[in-house]
Amino acid sequence: MLRFPNGQLFSGGAASYLYQPISENEEAPRILLSVAVGAFTLSAFVDTGGVYFLCPPQVAHRLHICPEDSFGSQRLLFRGVSHLGSLHRLPLTLLAHQGQSVTIDVTAFVPQISRTIEWSAEFPCILGMSGCLERLRFAIDPETDTFYFGALGESS
Amino acid sequence: MTAAVLERNNLTQAENARLDAQMAKLAAAVAAADTQAFLTAYRQVDWHNRPVQDYLAVTRMALAAGAYLRAREVSAQGAALYPEEAEIVKLAHILSPPKVIRTDLPAEPALAANHEWLRLHRQEYLGRWVALSQGHLLGVDDSFSALAAQITPCRDILFTKVL
């Protein structure tokens, strides 16, 4: 695991990641991690310029998200495009292959798919910064395709 | 009706018109999908005597304008002022900063094996959904829904589209 010079823990978990484009129409590779949401383990790519945890509707439908933690019919401006969808609060686990996995309570957005949406109906999950990754430390090692992560305040 | 709503009802016509004009500026920025204009208008909002409906409306407008941090801020302020109003309290909870709730979960060593399988078989299964466990293929289908109907999910099984 990674440590600060004083020995304090920087990250308690390390995850293998895939580094590749997420569609046939893209050339830019993304960091694809494995995350657990509800009963499912899924792929999700890191988008530090994005917000919230974006979850495809087909996946969200199977998660049986608690209605008390949901807010429907909300419009969200995402990368200059307005999407209608629903907001949720749900636990998401970043899965480590070494060390410890971390569960975060995050803001999730489930867009309604329409003809104008930039993704296909089954786009991968997206880990945005604000509302999702913002309370974690993380670093990558491109030589080994390893994503190091840990919660703020972890020290030993 | 809350005390603040009653207060707003007691405002003069001119004061109400001024508050409504501020809301209209925000709405115009949303309609134009102009985050910068929204933030400018937001900074000019007088929050004194605002009913809970205004906090809800501005939160929703902030999200629609891409002003995510303002949405978090105004919903939190609304929830603090109106703790008995379920809708603003729920929205503030949903938009509140993420919270780490567990750091003691064991690692999943098989993750790397699943990724290795995906590297090796990418061309063969490109565009299809696969279920993998410990580097072994458990199922394949054309959609997530069809695959999830075949295979009972659990932490050890990765459901992913081959990209």
Task: Indicate the topology.
The complex is a heterodimer of chains A (156) and B (163).
Chain A: E1 13-16, E2 18-20, E3 30-37, E4 40-51, E5 53-54, H1 57-63, E6 70-78, E7 81-94, E8 98-99, E9 101-111, E10 125-130, E11 136-141, E12 146-151
Parallel strand pairs in A: 4-10, 5-9
Antiparallel strand pairs in A: 1-8, 1-12, 2-3, 3-4, 3-7, 5-10, 6-7, 7-9, 11-12
Chain B: H1 3-9, H2 13-31, H3 35-43, H4 52-65, H5 68-81, H6 86-95, E1 99-105, H7 111-125, E2 129-133, E3 136-141, H8 144-150, E4 158-161
Antiparallel strand pairs in B: 2-3, 2-4
Summarize the structure.
Chain A has 156 residues and is mostly beta strands. Chain A contains one helix and twelve strands, in the order βββββαβββββββ.
Amount of helix of chain A = under 10%
**Distance N to C terminus of chain A:** 11 Å
Dominant shape of chain A: globular
The major sheet of chain A is characterized as:
6 strands, mixed, barrel
Mean pLDDT across the residues of chain A is 87
Largest interface: which pair?
A-B, 71 and 53 residues
What does this structure look like?
The complex is a heterodimer of chains A (about 160) and B (about 160). Chain A is built from 1 helix and 12 strands, in the order βββββαβββββββ. With about 160 residues, chain A is mostly beta strands. Chain A has a 6-stranded mixed beta barrel with strand order 3-4-10-5-9-7. In chain A, strands 8-1-12-11 form a 4-stranded antiparallel beta sheet, with no helix packed on it. Chain A is globular and about 50 Å long. In chain B, strands 3-2-4 form a 3-stranded antiparallel beta sheet, with helices on both faces. In chain B, helix 2 packs parallel to helix 4 (about 50-65), helix 4 packs antiparallel against helix 5 and helix 5 runs antiparallel to helix 6 (about 85-95). Chains A and B meet through strand 1, strand 3, strand 4, helix 1 and strand 6 of A and helix 4, helix 5, helix 6, strand 1 and helix 7 of B.
